[in-house]
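Fold it.
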Amino acid sequence: MILRLEHIGIAVKDLAASNELFEKLLGEQPYKEEEVASEFVKTSFFQTGEAKIELLEATHPDSAIAKFLEKKPEGLHHIAFEVDDIHAEMERLRTEGFQLLNTEPKKGADNKLVCFIHPKSANGVLLELCQSI
């Protein structure tokens, strides 16, 4: 079951500069920064009420973020929803006709298991399911 909006992911070219911008906007520093080596990305997270903002910077030209930024300007990359059972939710959505980009959940940033839903099956928006580990 989808529980709530978990975060909005924003692709950026320069994480340090974007952190400064969001610090000014939100009046606080990110609560967490980390590198997800398997995805070739550095991230930072800002808490905004019940949801979060995740800034994502590519660490390698082959990363999904680098490829995204080759085609589009910095901006909205994905919307993430927290789920209580990622395996069950993946199966439910697969049955409902959604195209999943992962056959199994994988370890993502911020201590989450994640799975992505292809934008072609979600009105052009990349969606992420995430469950706390």
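The chain has a mean pLDDT of 96.
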